[in-house]
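Lay summary. Proteins are chains of building blocks that fold into shapes, and those shapes determine what they do. In this project we predict the shape from the chain. Here is one chain we studied, written as its sequence of building blocks.
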Amino acid sequence: RYDGVHFRVFSHSGKDTSSLSSNLITSIAQDHAGHIWIEHQSGDLDIFDPKTESIQHVTRRPLFQSHPVVFSRDSWIPDSAGNLWCIENANGLCLYDWKQCRFSHYTHRSAGLASDTIHGLLEDTHGRIWVLTQQGLGISDDCDHHFRNIPFPFTVFFKTAEKPGFDIDDNMCALHERANGEIMLADEKKLIFFDPGRSSFRT
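And here is the predicted shape, written in a compact code that computers can read:
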């Protein structure tokens, strides 16, 4: 951390349980409250509060310990309520609701997902959850989180387990909400844009 004059380093210490889970960090994300979520190579997940400089160990919370999920790199998001959404490999989508102390598992069978293999995840500015599958986009805008699927009108090219050199961490694709409300993503060959207002794709 740099305050304009000095640097302060936050690191893992085996003698301090309030320190970071490890020094091997693979990704970070900031939530709506300004907290920084930190993913480690070990699969552990921490939350750093810049105001108090305190660290919470998410994957050591009782709810996570009772419902552990192994997720790929960059396959999770904190939502606007501070909950954790994460993608489980070929097994749909999981939600940790910390306030309600509730774990939910959403799949093709239980929530209408087009596929249990999910390539990307996003919460938009309206609080809607978007998922990306080989078949298209899925959107959930209700409290029960049943997904409405929007199929791609063209062929897309995502990395799959059948392709040579496949790594499970390569399975993820970033979803981004543009200032005009479009959802943007990319496969191996092109940029793809979806306009929710018109319910139309363009490349």
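What the prediction tells us: The longest strand covers residues 71-78.
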